[in-house]
Amino acid sequence: MGEVPIDREGWRDLLRRVTRRTHAQADAEDLLHSAWLRLERYKAQHTVENPQAFLVRTAVNIGIDDNRHDRLLPQERGDHATEIASDAPLQDEVIVARARLERVKEGLAKLTPRTREVFLMHRIDGMKYREIAQALGISQSAVEKHIARAALFLAEWTEGW
Description:
The protein is mainly α and about 160 residues long. The chain folds into two domains: about 10-85, no CATH class; about 90-155, Winged helix-like DNA-binding domain superfamily/Winged helix DNA-binding domain (Arc Repressor Mutant, subunit A), CATH 1.10.10. The protein has helices at about 10-20, 25-45, 50-70, 80-85, 90-110, 115-125, 130-135, 140-155. Helix 5 packs across helix 8. The model has no long low-confidence stretch (mean pLDDT about 85).
């Protein structure tokens, strides 16, 4: 039965092997330490023929398990970054959105009163073309034309914003 090297050079060799197989130099030390603990527990009940291979293989397997866990359950990792992350827009996005909204308001002001009224009834109040036509006493075709005119004008008005 081979002995586990406890000198620095032996440990560095194991670290190099783990790093090479996991491509995670920053985590190699932690993985190897976890593997060492598992080796000690395992050795209490079993014979280990090649402790170095056991350590490397176990460290690699722990790394694979950690990667799978991170991909599948990031919210359960206790990662502070996920706790801090917010779905709220960034400040610069808010400023841009407000500027765009002001541009749209200016564009709405430039529409004829009837076109603006029809457009807002549809977009803001959520009314259907048929309902707008009945409410204003105009044809559904006229409602469609007002909304198309408003949408085209506002698209051109806000282009580049």
